[in-house]
What we know:
Elements: H1 3-51, E1 74-79, E2 84-88, H2 97-103, E3 110-116, E4 119-132, E5 135-147, H3 149-184, H4 186-201, H5 215-271, H6 277-307, E6 315-318, H7 319-333, E7 338-343, E8 347-350, H8 352-368, E9 375-381, E10 384-388, H9 421-431, E11 435-440, E12 446-451, H10 457-462
Parallel strand pairs: 7-9
Antiparallel strand pairs: 1-2, 1-5, 3-4, 4-5, 6-8, 9-10, 10-12, 11-12
Helix pairs in contact: 1-3, 5-6, 6-9, 7-8, 8-9
Amino acid sequence: MTLRKRIALVAAAAxxxxxxxxxxxxxAYIRGQLRGxxxxxxxxxxxxAQHGDFHALDQPVPGIPPKVGGPAQYxxxxxxxxxxxxxQGDVSLPIDxxxxxxxxxxxxxxxxxxxxxxSHLRVLVFPVSLLVGGQxxxxxxIVLARPLDSVDxxxxxLRLTLALLCLGGVALAAALGRLAARRVLAPLAEVTETAHxxxxxxxLSRRLAIHADDEVGQLARxxxxxLERLEASRAALDDSVRAQRQLVADASHELRTPVTSxxxxxxxxxxxxxxxxxxxxxxxxxxxxxxxxxxxxxGDLIELARGDQPVDSTEDVRLDRIVAESVAWARxxxxxxxxxxxxxxxxVEGLPERLARAVNNLLDNAARHSPAGGTVEVSVDANGMRVxxxxxxxxxxDLPYVFDRFFRGANSRGTQGSGLxxxxxxxxxxxxxxxxxxxxxxxxxxxxxxxxxxxxxxDGAAIGLEPAAEVP
Length: 472
């Protein structure tokens, strides 16, 4: 059963229950009023008989004025021995044990319904004392009766009217409920249709129209927000897949050259032939150099692949200490370059080994592009880390691409490297909610900045951070 039908049925059931309750209450009230009028007329005539001038059998039972109902149509006097004398009307009212008990004085007055000759009568039986033949009769009962046929006829018509009203109300409620459900559920039908079309076409760009700021409107708004998140996730996934495919393609291209050269040199060495000792040593040195280049390239590829994985846990890392240790490492590996440092205490929330790799790559890049005897300036503060060399700088056309994978600018093609070092720096920066930028210094050389969310030097001093010790 559809939701629209269920809503229509619920509305019809609710209205039906209300109408039935209202009909029952209305019928009970009108029935009580009509029968109460008959009972009040009987009781009024009883009062007139009890308190009026009525003591002898030959006297008529006192009546009541027409404005309060007039006298009863049927009057009968019942004696204790069971005999009866009819005073008014042509119908013999039934005499049972209850009537005799009233006549004997052992029961009090009561009202009851009786059926006599196809007529429905309302009777009132009450005790009296009469004089018969000048002698007092201790007890007798007067039975007053009024017909209820007119009341029953009115109640019958009322029942039919209320039944038709209930049926009509239920039918109308069902129709209006179905119509209202159609209008209310129209946005839900639109949601269903949109979801179906998205499932069929895989198009996440569709959006729902928001017709009102109600529950259905909020559902449409949240559905649109979910579609936006799904579309963003799909775009990010597509970008990740394209990046992975591009990485595989670029890695295959970059690996082909050193592998081919290494294989050629090994084949020449295996063939032997007339090779001088000098040529053999040169080939062996080339093999070692190409193996190291290949190992470095594979290591960088592994580092890039690992950097794309989500971070499970982070810790507070002293960026100035990492930089100090990396500068000491760079001094050992690049003795032809001098390093000047200005390190302020700074804390970064992240992975220490990934940050150390990015810092090492920046220092290695600066050392490779610095002339012999040149100086590399390294600083750490609240904005992150800056590395400035005094080399030839970066070609203006290459600046937008220096952080791309396997990109090697015009000033880098004559130096060693895989073209992945700065790509790893950019990846580490984004992984730590930061960024990496490159620019040419005004007076020559290149300036690389690793922007990271850190605790500034002032805040570090406030919590007791000391500057990192200079590593010799």
